[in-house]
Amino acid sequence: MQKSLATIGLSLAAAAVLTIPASAASPVPSASVSPAQLFVAQQQSTTPTKRVAEHPEIRKAITSLERAKYALQHASHDFGGHRADALAATDKAIEQLRLALQYDKK
After folding, report:
1. Helix or strand holding residue 5 (H, E)
2. Which tens digit of pLDDT belongs to each residue from 30-61?
3. Is-contact 55 101, C-beta < 8 A?
């Protein structure tokens, strides 16, 4: 049975969340992130708040998915057309995780 590249990418991102120590996590800039947004993200990551500590697994998952997205965006080929689907699935997963964090703030 064949798995789509999106399924494999999301599985790898989930596995990375479980295996990457927090000290090794470094954000990978994507094309859609401005320098100002990176600065704010770095400031937030160096000054943890109660919210950050409440859901570290979700935040690690977002970071892993952003890394996977960056890798897909800079891949040398399109993997038989599956790269676009994988990027869309990655964007959707990141969006859902961010919505989950927003929901918890209510």
Report:
1. helix 5-19
2. 456 666 666 666 666 555 555 556 889 999 99
3. yes
